[in-house]
Amino acid sequence: MSIFFKAPLDIEIRLDNEESRKHVDVKTPQGRMEKLPIYKDGESVKGTVTLRTRDGRKVEHLGVKVQLLGSIDTNVDGLVSSEFLSLATELAAPAQLTHPESYPFEFKNVEKQYESYRGKNAKLRYYLKVTVLRKSSAEITREKELWVFHYSAPQTPAVTTIPAAGVKMDVGIEDCLHIEFEYSKSRFSLTDVIVGRIYFLLVRLKIKHMELSLIRRETVGAPPNQITDSETVVRFEIMDGAPVKGETIPIRLFLNGFDLIPTYRDVNKKFSTRTYLSLVLIDEDARRYFKQSEIILYREQ
Amino acid sequence: MALSASDQKAILQSCISSINHESNLMKQSLNDHKLLPALKHCSNFLNELRTNSLSPKQYYEIYMLIFDSLEILSTYLLNSHNSKQNKLMKAKTSEETQTPFLADLYEIVQYSGNIIPRLYLMIVIGTTYMSTKGAPSKELMKDMIEMCHGVQHPIRGLFLRYYLSQRIKNLLPFSTAADFHDTVEFLIANFIEMNKLWVRLQHQGHSSERELRYQERKELKILVGSNLVRLSQIIDDYKGDEDEHYSSTQFYHDKVFPTITEQIIQCRDHLAQSYLIDVLIQIFPDDFHFATLDELLNDVFLNLNATMKKSELVATLIERFISYKNYVVDLSEDKGKANTSNDVEKLFGRFWAFYLKLNKQEPELPAEEHSMLLQSFISLSLTFDPDNFENLDVVYKYATNELTNQENTSQEQEEMWVQLLSTPIRHFTSIKTLFKLEFFHEFYLKLNKEFQRKISLAIVDKTLSVENEGNIREPEYLSNTPEIDGIFKYLLVLIKDKPVKVNTATDLGVMKTIKINNGEKQITPEFIETQEKICKIIHLVEIPDDPLKTISQLMYIRKKYLNKEVGNLIFTYPTLISRILFKLKLVGYVNLEQKKRGQNDDSLDLLITSNFKNLSVIIDELYQHHQEYSADVILNIYLNVATVADQLRQESICYELFTQCFVVYEENLILNSHQYKYYTHMSPHDVLGGSLAYQSVVAIANVLTKTRFFTKENYENLITKVTLYGSKLLKKQDQCRSVYYCAHLWWWSETLLPPGEKTATIESSSKDRKQEKEETEDKQEHSDPEKAAHEDDEEVLLYRDGKRVLECLQKSLRVADSCMDPYLSLKLFIEILGRCLIFNIYGNGYVDARYINGLIDLIKTNIENLKDDEQEGGGEEEEEEEQEDKDTKEDDEEEEEEKEAVLFKQSQKVFERTLNYISEQQETEGRFEGIIV
C-alpha cells in the first residue's frame, strides 16, 4: 500500500539499545528469516519514534500515538484476531511537521502475559504501532514487532524434588513386549538434556531399532472445532539392533540445538502448544510401536 | 534376507567407494579448517557402518577403512586443540573457565540423529579429549561405555565396542588406586557387553544358518578377547600405588576372576566358553592361575556348558603350568637355585579332586574326555613331581577300575588309552621306572591286542633308544628277574605276535610283504622289525661279571616268554642261543685258564656241561618246530655251538652236537624237496654255487677242520661221514667239489691252538700215527723222505692222512670225469688240479709230481678234444639240439653256444694261469719239482 500511496511521512521506531539487545531469528510466513528483538515479561519497552517528512513537505497531523499491542491470530474458521494487550501513549499533539521530530516513549514494566509464537494456525505477536492521525487521508501507521520470551524462573526446590524421582512408565503389548522407561523428569528447560533409560522386561519382537522423537503439537480453538497440528521436530535414534530381556538402553537428548518452544496451555483460551516425547520401536517388518508422553518445556534464563 | 556372495561384494564395493569419497571430502574440509562440514562428512561415511548386509569379514574391512579416516580426524582435532591451547597460553587474557573446545564438540556430535555415527564420533572425540591434559577422563570413559548400550546389534555393537577399546586402550588411567579400579571396571564392563553381543549373534537370523553364524562368530572372537588381553596388561602394569598390601594376584582372585568367570558361565555358550576360558588361561600370569585354581576347576569348569570338552580346557591349563614349570626350571638353572613354588606339589591332588567331582557330576562323560584328562594329569604329575609315581599309579588304578570295564569300547577309545599309556613311556628317561607303576600293566592288560602291541613297541623303542635328548647314553641292562619280568611281560604280546595274514583282496598288494618258507608264508617288514627288536632286548639282558647268571636269566626268558609262540622261535632263538653261547664261552675260557693253573673246579665243569645240554635242548626245540624250512639255519647254530664246545674241550658234547648236525642234515637237508631257488639257479660252473645239501656238507666240513679236541677215532668217524655225505650228493659237480673239500679234513695245515697245547686227536693216537707213517712210507715207492723227516723234526702234531687225501682226490676226479657236460668236466678237472697243487705244497707225499703231471695231461687232452669239437662239431651240436627241441629259437641256441664258448675260454685261461703259477713257483720257490708244464 505504502508503495502506491507514498506516505508523506517516514516513521521510524527505534528501540533503546536495539543493537546490543538480543535478537531471535524467526521464520516469516513467506519463509524468510526475520531478526526480532527479544523482550521479557515485565520489561519496559522504551524507544524513540522519529517522524520525518518527505522531500521537506509539510505534514499536518492530528496527533501521534504509539501503542504496544499484543494479539493472537487464529485460523480456525477464517482468520480471527484478538488483542489481549493494548497500551497507548500520546506522543504529540496535533501539529504540523516540517522537520524531523523525535519522540521518546516508554511503556513501563509492561506485563507481557504470553510468549510470542508463530505456529501454523495460531500466531501470537507483540508489536509497537505508531499512528499518525490525519484528518484528510488515512492515518499513517508503522508497526514494529517485538519478540517476547517468557523465562520461567529456575525451578524452586519444592518443585524439583517431586520430579526428581523421574517419570517412570511401564508399557507393553501382552506377551510381546514389556518395557519400562524412565526419564529423569518431565519438565525440561529448552537448553536441557533429556536423560533417561529404557529397560526391556520382555522382548519377543524382532526390534530393529528404536527412536525418540519430539513432537510439537499445536491446538487451536475450542473443542468442537479444534484444529490440531503436529510436527515432528526431532527424530533421534537411540538404539540399533534387537535388545534382549534385561537390557537397559540409555537415553540422552540435548534439546538445545532444536527448534522447540515452551509448553503453553490455553493461551488466552485460544491455542495451546505442547511437546510430546515419543518413543518408537520399529521391528523387522517395519511396524512401529510407540508410546508418547508429554513433556513440559519451559524457557530458562 | 540371505544375500548372495556376489551381492555382498557389490555392496562392499559401494560402501568402500562411498567411504573413500566422504573421507576425502572430510580431509578437504579439514584442510580448509571447516570443522563442521568435516564432521558432516565424517558422519556420512560412518553411516556406512549401519549396513546390515555384510559378512563380519567385510564389515571388518570397512571398519578398518573408517578407523583410518577417523584417525585423521582425531589427529586434526588434537592439533587444533593444542594450537588453541597455545594461543590461550600466549594470550592469557582470556578466562580459564572457557569451555574446552573438545568438550563442546563432544556435545555437538551427540545431535547426530543416527546412533552409529553418533557413537563413533563420540568415541573419536571423547578419546581425543582424554588424550589432552586436564580432560575429565573418567567421566568420559563412563559416559562412552554407557552410551554404547544403545547399539544392540551384535556385529555393529561388537565393532563399536572394539573401536572404543582400541581407541581407549592407551589412555586408560591407572596411576591411582581409584583410577585403576575404574579402568578395570571399564574393561570388564566392556568385555561383558561384548560377550553378550557375541553370544547373541548366534541366535540371529534363520536357524538354518546356525553353522554360518558359528563360523562368523569364530571370526569375531578376537574382538571379545582383546578386552581381556588389555585387562591383563593393565593389571600387569599397575604397581599398586603406594598401597603396600596390594597384590595383583589377590586382586585378580577377588575382583577380576569372579566377574569374568561368572560372565563366562552365565553365557552358556559353547564357543564363548571354550574360547574365553582359553583366553583366560593364556593371557593371565601363571601365579594368578595358581591362586584361582580351585575356583577355576570346581566353580567354573564344573559349571560350564555340558557339551564343553573339559579335557581341552584342563589340558590347556596344565600345559600352561607345565611350560611355567619348565620356565621356572630354566630360570633356576640360570640362577643356580631352585625356586620353591608355593603349593605346586599339591597341584595333582587338586586336579584329581576336580576329576572325581566331574565324574560324579557327569557320569556319562565320554571316554575320550577321560583319556584326555588323565593324560593331562599324567603330564602334570610328571612335570611337577617327576619322582613321585604314586600319582601316576592313582591315575592308572582309576583307569583300570573305572573306565575299562565298559565292554563296548570303541576303536577310538582304545586309541585314547594307548595315548594315555604312552605318555609316561615317552617321559621316563629310564624305562625301568615304568615297572614301579603297579597298575600300568593291569591297565595295559585291559586293552586289546593291537593296542597292547603299540604300547609294547613304544616300550621297546624306548628301551632300545640309545639317544636321550641328544646324549648318547649307555644302554640299560636288564640285570635281575623283576626287571626282566617287567619288560618281558610287555614283550609277550610281541612274542606271540603272528605274521599278518595278507589278504590280497583287501590290501591289493599295497602292504609290503616278504615271502618266507619257500613262498608259503608271507610276513611284513614290520613284523620282522618287531622280532628284531625283541632280539635287541635279549641282548640287553646282562648281569655284569656273572655270565653264568646271565645264562640262567636267558634260559628263564626262553622258558617263560620266548617259547610262547613256536612259530616265531626262528626269529628270536638264534639270538638267544648265540648270546648264551657267548656267555658260556666266557665261562669256559675262565675254567680252562683255571685248569691250566691247576685249579680244578668240578662243579664249574658240571655247570658248563649242563648248560651245553640245555643249549642243545633249546636248539632241539627250535629244530622241532622249524626243521622244514630253517634246517640250514639250525645246522649253522649247531655248528657254532659245536665249535665252542670243541674249544672248551667238551668232546662228548661236541660229538653229540655233530651227530645232531648229521641228523639235521639227513632229515632235512640231504633231500629237501623244496630246494631254495636261490641255490638252484646258480650255474653249475660256479664254484660257490650248489645245492643246499652241498652247502651244508661244506659248512660241516669247514667246522670240522677246525676242531682239535676230538679223539682220533671220533674225528675220523665224523670226517668220514661228512665225506660220505659229500660223495652221495645228487649233482656231479656238488659231489666232486664237496669231496675235494673234504680232502682237507685229512690234512690239517695249521694248529689253531695256543702254543704248547696239543691236539687231542693226535695225542690219543700218537702211537698209531707213527705206525701209520711207517706204513705209508713203505708203501710209497717215491715217498718224500725229506718231507717226512721234516715233519718228524718239527713234531708238528697235526692230523694228516695223505692216503685218504689222495683217495678223495681220486674220487672227485672220477666224479668229474663222469660228468656229461664236457665243459663242466674240464672245469672240475682244473679245480681238482688246484687242490692237488695245494696238497703238494702242504707236503702230502701221495700227491706227487707224477700224479699232477697225469692230471695236467688229462686236462690238456680234454682241451684239445673240445677244441676239435668246436671246430668241426659246431654244426653237429646245433643239429642235435635242434632235434631235441625244435621250438627253441635260433637266438637261444646261439646264446647257448656262446655261453659254452665263454666257459670254455675261461676254463682255458684258468688252466693257463695255473700252469704259469706252477712254472713260476718252480723257478722262485723250488716247488713242484718234476711237474712238467
UniProtKB/TrEMBL annotation, chain A:
SUPFAM superfamilies from the UniProt entry: E set domains (SSF81296)
Top-level taxon of origin: Eukaryota
GO MF, one annotated term: protein transporter activity
An individual GO BP term: intracellular protein transport
A Pfam match: Vps26
GO cellular component: CROP complex; cytosol; endosome; retromer, cargo-selective complex
Annotated InterPro entries: Arrestin-like_C (IPR014752), Ig_E-set (IPR014756), Vps26-related (IPR028934)
Entry's family note: Belongs to the VPS26 family.
Name of the molecule in the record: Vacuolar protein sorting-associated protein 26
Naturally occurring in which organism (per UniProt): Spathaspora passalidarum (strain NRRL Y-27907 / 11-Y1)
From TrEMBL, chain B:
InterPro entries in UniProt: Vps35, Vps35_C
Biased composition range(s): Acidic residues: 868-899
BP GO annotations: intracellular protein transport; negative regulation of endoplasmic reticulum unfolded protein response; protein retention in Golgi apparatus; retrograde transport, endosome to Golgi
Region of interest: Disordered: 759-793, 868-903
Coarse class of the protein's main subcellular location: membrane
Homology family: Belongs to the VPS35 family.
Its biological purpose: Plays a role in vesicular protein sorting.
Identification of the protein by name: Vacuolar protein sorting-associated protein 35
Species per Swiss-Prot/TrEMBL record: Spathaspora passalidarum (strain NRRL Y-27907 / 11-Y1)
